[in-house]
Design brief:
71 residues; 69% helix
Length: 71
């Protein structure tokens, strides 16, 4: 893009996936929801927790970028 931050975005995306994998051992929804019935309250809750977890990881990555800390 015009700001030249494609490499930073790619590095951060890679780091996000790595951190998510470390935490949850998978990134595939099918794997993450194995054994949970489609449409069940339990599955919905589980998926909501995955989204919340990802939100925290993204915020951490953005905050580290704001601070000038690249990992």
């Amino acid at each position: 893009n015009s700001f030249g931050n494609e490499n930073i975005a790619r590095m951060k995306a890679k780091e996000l996936v790595q951190r998510f994998m470390e935490t949850h051992k998978a990134t595939c929804c099918r794997v993450l929801t194995k054994g949970l019935e489609m449409g069940s309250a339990e599955r919905k809750s589980h998926c909501s927790n995955m989204v919340d977890s990802c939100e925290i990881l993204v915020k951490d990555l953005l905050n580290s970028e704001k601070s000038g800390i690249l990992k």
